[in-house]
Amino acid sequence: MFKYLIPAVALVFATPAAAQSDGVAELVATVAEGMQSMVGSEFEGGLTITQIGAEGEILVIGVGGPSGWRAGLDADDVSDALLSGFCKEGADFFTSGAKLRVESEDDGRTLVGPVVTACP
Q1: Which residues form the signal peptide (predicted)?
Q2: pTM metric for this prediction
Q3: For residue 31, what is the enclosing H or E element?
Q4: N or C: which end of the chain has fewer CB within 10 A?
């Protein structure tokens, strides 16, 4: 499902050393700002990054797709799919205390995933 989305997202999470010395909320805001060019990007299966933002120490990534793309999946499943690839490349993101949440949209309904604080 996230075959091409995961590497693209994970590459953006390389945390610059200068940002690590700032507060966690500032780090998350910097990462979110750096990822804005990915909003609207479409990946395999029609999945699209719909939003990227910072809510304090939480990086929020919104994902959408064609009608029914989320059938049979709950918020944890979607979050886990994105997180598995993310942690291969961007696990250092969490060492600063930063958090991640995935929100998925399907047929006008948004599922809010759990707040993730570490790679599994």
Answers
A1: 1-19
A2: 0.81
A3: helix 24-34
A4: C
94, two tokens: 């969490």
| Amino acid found at 54 | A
Within 13 Å of residue 76, how many CA atoms lie on the same side as its CB? 1
**Residue 22, pLDDT above cutoff 90:** no
User: What digits encode the pLDDT tens for the residues 70-84?
Assistant: 999 999 999 988 888
- CATH architecture of the region 5-112: 2-Layer Sandwich (3.30)
- The candidate with the shortest Cα–Cα distance to 77, out of 110, 104, 48, is 104
Domain boundaries, the chain: 5-112
What single-letter amino acid sits at 41?
S
CA distances from 105 to 5, 14, 74, 80 (A): 15, 26, 11, 16
Q: What does DSSP say about strands 99-106 and 48-55: parallel, antiparallel, or unpaired?
A: unpaired
Which ranges of the chain would DSSP assign to H, the alpha helix? 5-12, 17-20, 24-34, 75-90
